[in-house]
Structure formats: structure tokens, C-alpha cells
């Protein structure tokens, strides 16, 4: 600070030239003087407003200058500890005097081109190697240069963190520490407020310090009971970093929720395994998930908060912690259940590594049967090493010690390891924290009690209730489950077996009478099922299993047994029976439809084709229906001599199976026959047939080959509608005709088809076929066509022999209808 701006300067300008009071020497006095002079000017200086305004302006600027100087003085005081600590390190390393250490520090800072405070922070980082150093080094490693986090922030990350550390350590309470953290470390990160919560023994939260909030807001959040779920509570429950991108969208209450609705970070602040408090940092605007380096910096600041909370706790009796442990031992000795008093065991770095058994009471019972003196004084993980399993007993005790929240659970497995033998015991466990000690209580479940509870669960799951009826006294005993089955309260009078017919459906009276006769008169085991009509109007299906109890002289003493609610099973059996009936009916209908489809196929498409009376043309047909009736398809063929003496040759395949495919096949075959009488060419015939398929059938699609052979010129015109191309065999050489353009029949309302013409020589053979001849599930269509060509190359004495050979060597595995039409020119 220069002399012109020092708060201790002795001469200040007068309010008026040559006269006026001296300028105040403190911010408070200046503010009071401004208010007083403003009132005076408003009351009695109306005549000279032009003189008053400049005076007030000079006074306000002086107040602002003094305020900045005080803030700079505070910052210098916070950073002075950094310089003194660095001087001490140089004195120890260089073995020099304080004056020489200060001169050496200034010289090194000048040569390095940094400020003395920045150099002091760097020396501390290299010497301490603590969490603050880790946070600063991570930032440097990621940014490759010690630059500030936000534009306009001054100083390196290391200096900011070390300055905040100095301010927190020098603070007289947590409130001052929170202000130092916000000013030096959090404001450069963009944060505008911070809250430090202290965790009380009852797991409640107390606002130990805050900065950036109004006094009214801090007063409203002075205490948070254990049951209130806040941002800080989430961090305490999870024992980990908690990040909330936007408080306004999270729906979780917290301090300043109306003014600061942006991002929040909360991290536990603890030491020695105990969570002493929570550090909560507030940003004014929503932010995405932050980088790990920001998390490391805030976690390092949380350690400073833990140090402050530990150094400046709430006023209490210095002997309170020891007194609480003594009282806890007395409480454990007064309990009727086995109890242990545990105290934390810390390593040389004050980190929690285990719990030591400080005391066991007289009723202590070890799961492995070891005496109490073997456990008393031992470490918990030494006595019970398997308690270190994830989610085991050690994790439970550690969490209670950290948070102060009590734990209680039933049927917890306690495991001991004796001579490498695993010994398990089931127990009810309760864990609570008192000051710094832990009270662990377990009640090992006896075998009889455990079996009784297993029986209760079995009865509940099986909806079973037991009873016993003493015939000598007439007393009837039910368990609680049986009262539930009957829909009666446990205070109701149980229903005797003889009175059951009055509570059952009238149609079941005879069955109950036979049941009672078997038990009482024949003295034999008996069972009966009946409909129980309860008083609440509900009818249940009940099965009773009972047996007589006889004495040594075979006299009937009692009847005991069990009721079971089998309503769900009964209605399930009824539903299954109805489903089986519907399934059998459906199978019958499908079978009849498939048989009808097969009969239609045989009627329209006989396996053996009648001879065709056409000059110079020999036609042979092989039709192989599917083996299964459910796979009856829509394959069809036709050979017909038209009035023009031309021969119609066609083959097709309707999509689908069953009666629908068979009837659609008949429609298309007959339609093509009628259209062919017109004398139109194959392309025109397929165009018309597509119109019939699209408009006059019910969602039918099909493929087809249509050809017209002229015996006089031995030419054949043909067209295709999405079908496989014909096979042309000449001189033992087979090849497929080119694929002509033409869509499926019925796929489009309007379609056009290409047409081609070939001239055939004597002994030429044409094969028209459906996909059932070549299709395989594990082969492509190209490989299947190549296999057909290989088979067709082989010669054959006659056309019928050729077709038989092709069918014999077919490798199709789809169990589909197969149709092959062979045409040989003679």
C-alpha cells in the first residue's frame, strides 16, 4: 500500500477550502458521517446544493477507498502465514537466520518472475504433499500451465488454496473459516456462497458457518433435524461427493434455495474415520457435471473444514467423551443381551483402520463359543476377520461411527473363523454411537426360535393354518394363520369341525360328513376339499388334512391337522382345463381345414398329369405335396391347348399355407384359364391376372410363369411375375432364361410385365418349377439354383426319367409343396 492510500494517513482534504472536520479513519465512521451529512444537507442546506454534492462525492470515494484497503489488509494477513511458513522451511533447509530466509525468498521470487506469496505456496506444496498439493498438481497437469480457473481470477491455484488454508487455520471459528474459503478459493471457481454443516451425535445438521447468505437465511437454516432430506443430508448418507446440476430442478430443499437455484456440490468433511461435517458450495447458475480437478479442490477444502470443526467444536465438557465411554460400559453391563463397546483404532496418520473391543458385558456370547477374555481388547477384524466382507458387520459399524445414525436389523449373519473353520450364527443386531464409542448389541437366535420362525414363513407362503381339537374338553386351538384364512380376528371363537357344514357351501355338506365320519368313527387319516363361505362374503377353496390322536388304549383324545387355502390352485386348474379344451378344439378345426386343403389340391392338381394332345410337344408333370398337412401350400400348374392351337404352359405359387392358400390357388388357376381364351400374350395375361389378384381376392400375393407355345413355328413367348426363371436344356447343356421384369401378382394395383420369345429345336427341354424344389434354410438362392443346374446337366432317356431324377436329387428342406413341369420338343 502506498502512503497516499494508507488508512493511517494523518492529513486528509477538508470538506471546504480551508475549513471543516477531519476525515474519519474507519469505514464505520465514514458511513455514519455520510448519513449525518446527508441529513444535514437535506435539512438545512437547500440554499447551496451545488456546494454539497461535490463534498458528498469526495466522502463516498474516500469510504470506498478505505473499504478496499481493509479488504487488502485482510488478504495480506491471510497470506502472511504462507510466507512465514515458507521462511521456516528455508531456515530449516538452508540453516540460515530469519532475515536471510526472507531475503532468499524475495530473491527466488524475483528470479522466478512470481510474487513472494506464489513462491511460498509452491514451497509448501513441494514440502507438504497433502490433499491441497494433489488438487493443485492435478490442475497444473490438465492445463499444462498454472492458470486461474476463471477469467479475471488472480494468482495460481496453489496460492489460492494455500491462502484459504491459512485463513481457515487462523480463523477463530467456523464462520470465519467459511468466509476465508469463499473469498480465496471458491469465488475464483464461480461459486457465490458456501455453508459448513456440523454433524451432531443424533445425525442432525447444524449450520456451523456460512458465507454468501443473508443473516435471515442462515438463521432459518441454523438446525436441520435428522429426518429432513437436504443436499447435505444426501452427502452424509452416501458418504461421498454429491453433485446437483440445478437445485431448482432437483426438488431437494437446502439453504438459499430461493436465491441460489443453480448448481450445488456437497462433500463430507471428516477425520479419523468420523464425518464431522458437510461442506456445501453454491453456484448461481445451473452447471453440468464438473471435472475431477474441481472435485479434488473442493474435497481438499472439506479437509480444512474438518480441521476447523475439530479445532473449534461447540462448547462442551472436556471430559465428556471419556465420561460417555464410561457410561456406555455401564449401559452394556446392564443389558440382558450380549454387548460390545468399540472404540476407533487409528493409524499414525489419524486414519481409521479398525475398531478395538474396549469392553464386553457379562452376557457376551461369541458365535464361535470363544470365552470373553479372548475377544476383550482385540481388534474387531482380528476377532472376526470375515466381518470385512462388503456390506458386512465392519461396514455397518464404520458407517454408524461416521454418520452417527443408528442401525438395527434382524437375521444378520455373524461369521467367525476358528482354525480356518467358518462358523455362522444368525442374530438380531443393533449398533449405535455415543460420543466417539460404538455400542454393538447382538441377540443370537436359538435353534428352536429359528425353526419356529421358518415354520411361520412356510405357513404364510403356503397359506396354511394349523389346528387341534380336544374331544374330551371340546377346546379348539387355532394358530394366527387359521384365523386369517377364515377372515376372523384372533379374538374370535374358533370353529369346531362339527360346525364346519354351517360355514360351507351346501353342496359340500356330504363331503364334510364323510370326512368327519372317517376321523371320528373309523379313526383314520382323512382329507377333504370344500368351499368355505366366510362371514365377510368371500368364498375360498379350502383343503383340510387331519388325523386322530389316540391314547395307549386306542381311545380318541383329539384331532389335529391343517387347513390350506387352495383357491388360487383351483382356479388355475379350471383355467388350464378351459385352455386345453379350447386348444383341442382349435387343433381339430385346423386339422379339418388342412385336410380340406389337401383334398382340394388332389382334386385340382393330381400328382400324375394326363397326356397332352399337342403336335410336336411332350409334357410331363411332377407334383409332390408337403408331408405335413399344416404345410399345405398354394403351388399350382396348368397345361392347356387353346382354341388357337397354341399351348398354355404356366406354373405359380400362392403365398401362405392352409385352406386360404389352396382356395386362392384355385381362383388364380381358373382365372388364367378364362383369360387365355382371349388370345392375348403372356405379358397381357399376367397384367390382367394381377388386377384379379389385387382387387378380387383377400390380400393374396403370388408368383407365376406364363408361356404360350406355338407348335407351327416352335416358338415360345413367356413372361414372369416374381417367379424363378425357367430352365432350358439343349445338347446336355442347361442354363436359366434371363430374368424378365415383373412384380408379384397382387402387390400393386397396376403393374406391367416384360415378355420374351425363344425358338426351340427338337429335343430341347424346358423346366418350369416352384421354389419347393430348391429352397434350403442354410443356403442362398444362388447356390440352390447352381445345384439345380448341376443336376439337370445329366442326361436321361426320357422326360419322365429326367423329372424323376431332379426330384430324387432335390436337396430342399423346407417341407413345402413342389411342382415341376417339363416340356420336350419332339
From TrEMBL:
Q: Which domain of life is it from?
A: Bacteria
Query: Which residue intervals define the domain ANTAR in the entry?
Result: 63-124
What SMART domains does the record point to?
Answer: ANTAR (SM01012), PP2C_SIG (SM00331)
Q: Does the keyword Nucleotide-binding apply?
A: no
Identify the residues that the record assigns to the PAC domain, covering every copy: 526-578
- Region Disordered: which residues? 1-29
Key word Phosphoprotein present = no
Q: Which GO terms describe its molecular function?
A: phosphatase activity; RNA binding
What is the protein name for this chain?
A: Antitermination regulator
Q: Do you know which InterPro entries this protein is assigned to?
A: ANTAR, Bact_Sigma-Reg, CheY-like_superfamily, PAS-assoc_C, PAS-like_dom_sf, PPM-type-like_dom_sf, PPM-type_phosphatase-like_dom, WH-like_DNA-bd_sf
- Keyword entries, A-Z: Hydrolase
Amino acid at each position: 500500500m502506498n502512503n497516499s492510500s494508507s488508512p493511517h494517513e494523518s492529513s486528509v482534504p477538508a470538506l471546504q477550502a480551508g475549513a471543516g472536520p477531519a476525515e474519519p479513519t474507519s469505514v464505520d465512521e465514514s458511513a455514519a458521517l455520510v448519513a449525518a451529512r446527508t441529513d444535514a444537507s437535506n435539512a438545512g442546506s437547500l440554499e447551496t446544493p451545488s456546494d454539497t454534492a461535490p463534498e458528498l462525492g469526495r466522502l463516498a470515494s474516500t469510504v470506498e477507498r478505505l473499504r478496499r484497503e481493509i479488504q487488502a489488509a485482510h488478504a495480506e494477513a491471510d497470506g502472511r502465514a504462507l510466507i512465514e511458513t515458507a521462511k521456516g522451511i528455508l531456515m530449516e533447509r538452508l540453516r540460515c537466520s530469519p532475515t536471510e530466509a526472507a531475503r532468499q525468498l524475495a530473491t527466488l521470487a524475483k528470479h522466478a518472475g512470481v510474487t513472494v506469496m506464489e513462491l511460498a505456496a509452491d514451497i509448501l506444496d513441494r514440502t507438504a504433499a497433502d490433499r491441497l498439493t494433489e488438487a493443485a498438481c492435478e490442475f497444473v497437469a490438465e492445463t499444462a500451465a498454472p492458470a486461474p480457473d476463471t477469467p479475471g481470477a488472480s494468482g495460481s491455484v496453489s496460492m489460492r488454496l494455500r491462502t484459504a488454508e491459512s485463513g481457515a487455520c487462523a480463523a477463530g471459528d467456523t464462520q470465519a473459516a467459511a468466509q476465508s474459503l469463499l473469498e480465496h478459493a471458491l469465488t475464483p471457481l464461480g461459486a457465490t456462497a458456501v455453508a459448513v454443516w456440523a454433524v451432531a451425535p443424533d445425525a442432525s445438521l447444524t449450520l456451523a458457518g456460512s458465507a454468501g447468505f443473508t443473516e435471515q437465511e442462515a438463521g432459518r437454516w441454523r438446525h436441520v433435524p435428522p429426518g429432513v432430506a437436504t443436499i447435505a443430508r444426501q452427502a452424509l448418507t452416501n458418504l461421498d461427493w454429491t453433485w446437483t446440476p440445478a437445485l431448482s430442478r432437483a426438488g431437494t430443499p437446502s439453504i438459499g434455495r430461493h436465491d441460489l437455484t443453480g448448481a450445488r456440490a456437497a462433500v463430507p468433511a471428516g477425520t479419523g474415520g468420523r464425518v464431522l461435517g458437510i461442506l456445501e458450495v453454491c453456484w448461481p447458475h445451473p452447471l453440468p457435471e464438473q471435472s475431477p480437478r474441481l472435485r479434488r479442490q473442493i474435497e481438499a477444502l472439506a479437509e480444512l473444514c474438518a480441521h476447523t470443526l475439530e479445532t473449534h467444536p461447540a462448547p462442551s465438557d472436556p471430559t465428556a467423551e471419556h465420561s460417555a465411554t464410561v457410561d456406555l460400559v455401564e449401559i452394556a453391563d446392564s443389558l440382558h443381551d450380549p454387548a460390545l463397546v468399540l472404540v476407533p483404532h487409528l493409524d499414525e496418520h489419524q486414519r481409521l483402520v479398525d475398531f478395538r473391543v474396549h469392553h464386553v458385558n457379562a452376557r457376551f456370547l461369541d458365535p464361535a463359543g470363544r470365552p470373553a477374555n479372548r475377544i476383550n481388547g482385540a481388534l474387531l477384524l482380528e476377532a472376526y476377520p470375515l466381518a470385512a466382507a462388503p456390506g458386512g458387520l465392519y461396514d455397518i459399524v464404520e458407517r454408524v461411527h461416521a454418520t452417527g445414525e443408528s442401525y438395527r436389523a434382524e437375521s444378520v449373519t455373524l461369521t467367525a473363523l476358528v482354525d480356518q473353520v467358518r462358523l455362522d450364527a444368525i442374530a438380531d443386531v443393533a449398533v449405535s454411537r455415543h460420543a466417539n464409542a460404538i455400542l454393538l448389541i447382538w441377540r443370537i437366535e436359538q435353534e428352536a426360535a429359528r425353526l419356529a420362525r421358518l415354520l411361520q414363513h412356510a405357513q404364510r407362503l403356503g397359506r396354511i393354518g394349523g389346528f387341534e381339537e380336544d374331544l374330551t374338553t371340546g377346546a379348539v386351538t387355532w394358530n394366527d394363520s387359521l384365523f386369517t384364512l377364515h377372515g376372523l380376528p384372533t379374538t374370535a371363537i374358533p370353529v369346531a369341525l362339527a360346525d364346519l357344514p354351517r360355514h360351507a357351501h351346501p353342496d359340500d355338506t356330504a363331503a364334510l360328513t364323510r370326512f368327519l365320519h372317517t376321523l371320528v368313527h373309523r379313526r383314520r387319516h382323512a382329507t377333504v376339499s370344500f368351499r368355505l363361505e366366510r362371514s365377510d362374503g368371500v368364498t375360498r377353496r379350502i383343503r383340510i388334512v387331519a388325523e386322530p390322536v389316540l391314547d395307549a388304549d386306542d381311545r380318541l383324545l383329539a384331532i389335529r391337522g391343517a387347513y390350506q387355502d387352495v383357491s388360487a390352485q383351483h382356479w388355475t386348474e379350471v383355467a388350464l382345463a378351459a385352455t386345453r379344451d379350447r386348444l383341442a378344439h382349435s387343433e381339430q378345426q385346423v386339422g379339418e381345414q388342412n385336410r380340406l386343403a389337401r383334398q382340394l389340391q388332389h382334386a385340382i392338381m393330381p400328382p400324375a398329369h394326363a397326356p397332352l394332345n399337342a403336335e410336336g410337344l411332350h409334357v410331363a408333370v411332377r407334383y409332390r405335396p408337403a408331408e405335413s398337412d399344416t404345410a399345405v401350400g398354394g403351388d399350382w400348374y396348368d397345361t392347356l391347348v387353346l382354341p388357337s392351337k397354341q399351348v398354355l404352359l404356366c406354373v405359380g405359387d400362392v403365398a401362405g399355407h392352409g385352406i386360404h392358400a389352396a382356395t386362392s390357388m384355385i381362383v388364380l388357376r381358373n382365372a388364367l384359364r378364362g383369360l387365355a381364351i382371349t388370345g392375348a400374350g403372356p405379358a397381357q395375361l399376367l397384367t390382367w391376372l394381377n388386377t384379379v389378384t389385387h382387387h378380387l381376392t383377400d390380400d393374396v400375393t403370388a408368383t407365376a410363369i406364363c408361356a404360350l407355345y406355338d407348335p407351327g413355328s416352335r416358338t415360345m413367348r413367356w413372361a414372369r411375375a416374381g417367379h424363378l426363371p425357367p430352365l432350358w436344356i439343349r445338347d446336355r447343356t442347361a442354363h436359366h432364361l434371363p430374368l424378365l421384369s415383373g412384380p408379384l401378382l397382387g402387390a400393386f394395383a397396376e403393374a406391367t410385365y416384360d415378355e420374351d420369345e425363344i425358338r426351340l429345336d427338337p429335343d430341347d427341354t424346358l423346366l418350369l418349377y416352384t421354389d419347393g424344389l430348391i429352397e434350403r434354410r442354410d443356403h442362398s438362392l444362388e447356390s440352390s439354383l447352381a445345384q439345380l443346374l448341376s443336376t439337370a446337366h445329366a442326361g436321361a432317356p426320357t422326360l419322365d426319367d429326367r423329372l424323376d431324377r431332379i426330384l430324387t436329387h432335390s436337396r430342399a428342406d423346407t417341407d413345402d409343396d413342389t411342382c415341376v413341369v417339363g416340356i420336350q420338343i419332339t
